[in-house]
Amino acid sequence: MRKDKGYRISDETLFLQIRHGCGKSFDALFIKYYPVLWAYTRQFIEPEDGEEVVQDVMVWLWENRRQVSFETSLKNYLFRAVRNRCLSLIDRNELKRKVYHIVHEKMSSHFENPDFYDYEELTRRIEEALTRLPESYREAFELNRFHQLTYKEIAERLNVSPKTVDYRIQQALKQLRVELKDLLPILFLVL
C-alpha cells in the first residue's frame, strides 16, 4: 500500500484489500476512522463506552470482512454500524433503569424494612447456590459478574467461544433464579 502524499487510496480499494486479509490496510482504515467514529459516539454515549463501541465495530468488520457488503459507502456503513451499537447500548441501559424503577416501586416497602437486608444470610444463600452450579457455569458467571470480565475476555481465558460463555452464563442465571426465587427483588441489586 503506497503512502505517498499525492496518492490517496479510496475506501473501496482499502476495503477490497482488507477483504483479502491485508492487516496493513485494516490498520490504515482504523487510523483513518477511529477518531471520527469515536467523536460521533459522544453525542449518544459516554466517551469510554464510545471507545468500546468503535472498537467492537472495527473488530466485527475485520472478523466478518468476507461477508460484509455495503450499499452506499464504507464510511456510511461504519457510521451507521456505530450509531446502531450506540442506540442498542442506550436501549439496554434504559431497560435496566426501567426494571430497577419498577422493582423499586413495587418493593419499596420491603426495601425499607431493615430485616430485608440481612446481608450475611443473603451472601450465604448466594454462595450456596453458586456452589451447586456446574463448574463451567459457575466459573463463567463469577468471571463476568464478580470480576467484570467481558464474554470475549472470559472466552479467551477459558479457551471457548464467546457464544459458549453466553450460554453458560444464561444457564447459571436460570438455575440461580429458580434456587433464589424468594430473593429475586434484592438480587436485581446484587447480581
Automatic annotation (TrEMBL):
Task: Give start and end of each RNA polymerase sigma-70 region domain.
Answer: 30-93
The protein depicted here goes by the name RNA polymerase sigma-70 factor
- MF terms in GO: DNA binding; sigma factor activity
Superkingdom of the source species: Bacteria
Under InterPro entries, the record lists: RNA_pol_sigma-70-like, RNA_pol_sigma-70_dom, RNA_pol_sigma70_bacteroid, RNA_pol_sigma70_r2, RNA_pol_sigma70_r4_t2, RNA_pol_sigma_r2, RNA_pol_sigma_r3/r4-like, WH-like_DNA-bd_sf
The record's Pfam families line, in alphabetical order, gives:
Sigma70_r2, Sigma70_r4_2
RNA polymerase sigma factor 70 region 4 type domain ranges (all copies): 124-176
Q: Which organism is it from?
A: Tannerella forsythia (Bacteroides forsythus)
Look up the record and give one Gene Ontology term from the biological process aspect: DNA-templated transcription initiation
List the keywords (alphabetical). Answer: Sigma factor, Transcription, Transcription regulation
Entry's NCBIfam families? Answer: Sig70_bacteroi1 (TIGR02985), sigma70-ECF (TIGR02937)
So what family is this one in?
A: Belongs to the sigma-70 factor family. ECF subfamily.
